[in-house]
Amino acid sequence: MLYALARPLLFALDPEQAHRITLGAAEAALRLGLLGLAAPRVVARPVQVMGLEFPNPVGLAAGLDKNAEHIDALGALGFGFIEVGTVTPRPQPGNPRPRLFRLPAAQALINRFGFNNVGVDALLANVARARWRGILGINIGKNFDTPLERAADDYELCLERVYRRASYVAVNVSSPNTVGLRALQEKQSLDALLARLAAARARLAERHGRRVPLALKVAPDLDDAQIRDIAAAVRRHGFDALIATNTSLAREGVEGLPNAGEAGGLSGAPIRARATRVLAALAAELKKEVPLIGAGGILSGADAVEKISAGASLVQLYTGLVYRGPRLIADCADAIAAARGGAP
Questions:
Q1: Looking at the domain assignment, is residue 344 inside a domain?
Q2: From CA 42, how far away is CA 337, in angstroms rounded?
Q3: Among 159, 157, 148, which residue's Cα sits nearest to residue 182?
Q4: Judging by beta carbons within 10 Å of its beta carbon (0-12, 13-18, 19+), is residue 247 exposed, middle or buried?
Q5: 302 assigned to some structural domain
C-alpha cells in the first residue's frame, strides 16, 4: 500500500534518482522501525539448494544493490537471499547518464549501467558493516578495460577477494552492457573460464575449510546449441547453480514505445517468456543435476510459479519490485508454497 502511494511520485523522477531515493527511504524506515509497514511478513518456508538452506525461495537479483550498501534494509523486507554486485576488481563509473529507462506501458526497464561499482574492496567493507546474516550472493564481473583474453584474471581476483564473505558467488558473463562480455558465454571461452574458477575454488576451499558454491548467470538470448554447451560446461566443471536469466537485447513486446530504442538490456514483463524458455531448456539438458535460479519478467506470484514449473528451485526479483513494490516478495513466496502443496 505504501509503495503504491509513493510510486507516482517516484515515477515522476529520473529513474536512477528514484532508485537512490527509494533505497535511502528504506534505510530511514529501518532505523525508525517502520520498514515492516512496507511489505507483508514473509512466512519461512525453507528450501535446500547448493548445499545452503534458504528461508524462502524468493531472492533479490544482482544490480539493485550493486555496492552492498543496503543489505540490512533489503534483508528486512523478507527476501530468502540477497545477491549484490556486479562487482569488479577496480572501481569504475559505468556508462554515461542517462542509462536507466522506464517503459511503464510494458512494465519494463532498459538499462545500460555498464557495471558501475565501487570496486571489490569497498564492496567488502560494506558487507562487513552489515548486520543481516542471511544468505548473501556476490556477483562478480570484469572491468570494462580488461581485455577479453585476460578476463579470467579479473574473475579469479574477485573470487579470491569475496570468497570469505559470500554464501555463494555468481559469475556474470551475460550483461549486454560491457563490450564483448557475452563472448565469454561461447563454448571455448566459457570452458576455459569455468575451469580456471573451479581450480581457484578448490584452492580456496582447502585454504578456508569451506566450499563456497559457484553459480553462472546467463543471457536470455541463447540459441539451442549455446544452451547445450553451457549446460555441459557447468556440469563438467562442478558449478553449483545456473541463474537464468540476465537482461535481453531483444525488443519484442516493446516496439514503438517511448525509450524502446535505447541501447541496453531489457528487463521486466516483455522478457518473461524468453527467459523461461532458456530456463526450461537448461532444465531439460541438466536433468536436475545442477539447480536453476529463475529470473526475468517476474511481476506476480503466478510468474514465479511459472519459473518453478519450468525447473527453477529459486527465483530472483528486480524489475518487478520497481512496478509492484516489496509486497511482490510475499506474493511470490506464497504462490510458490501453494503450488508446492503448502499453505499460502
A1: no
A2: 11
A3: 148
A4: buried
A5: yes
Domain extent, residue 264, equals: 42-339
Domain count, the chain: 1
- Give catalytic residues, as residue numbers: 175
Backbone angles phi, psi at 188, to 5 degrees: -70, -40
User: Can you read off the three cell numbers belonging to residue 141?
Assistant: 564481473
Question: Rounded to the nearest 5 degrees, what angle is found at the Cα of 56, between the Cα atoms of 75 and 65?
Answer: 30
Q: Is residue 240 part of a domain?
A: yes
Kindly state whether residue 36 falls inside one of the protein's structural domains. no
pLDDT string in tens for the chain (344-residue length): 578 888 999 999 999 999 999 999 999 999 999 888 788 889 899 999 999 999 999 999 999 999 999 999 999 999 999 999 999 999 999 999 999 999 999 999 999 999 999 999 999 999 999 999 999 999 999 999 999 999 999 999 999 999 999 999 999 998 888 888 898 888 899 999 999 999 999 999 999 999 999 999 999 999 999 999 999 999 999 999 999 999 999 999 999 999 999 999 999 999 999 999 999 999 999 999 999 999 999 999 999 999 999 999 999 999 999 999 999 999 999 999 999 886 55
CB atoms within 10 A of CB 309: 15
- Other residues' Cβ atoms within 10 Å of the Cβ of residue 229: 19
Sign of CA dihedral 51, 85, 80, 221: negative
End-to-end CA distance of the chain: 20
Q: What is the 3-state secondary structure (H, E, C) of 1-37?
A: CHHHHHHHHHHCCCHHHHHHHHHHHHHHHHHHCCHHH
3-class DSSP string for 128-183: HHCCCCCEEEEEECCCCCCCHHHHHHHHHHHHHHHCCCCCEEEEECCCCCCCCHHH
CA dist., res. 22 & res. 26, Å (int): 6
CATH code at position 125:
3.20.20.70
Instruction: Write the CA distances from 100 to 64, 290, 306, integer angstroms.
Output: 12, 33, 27
CA distance 21 to 31: 15
DSSP state of 93: -
Question: CA–CA separation, 184 vs 263, rounded Å?
Answer: 20
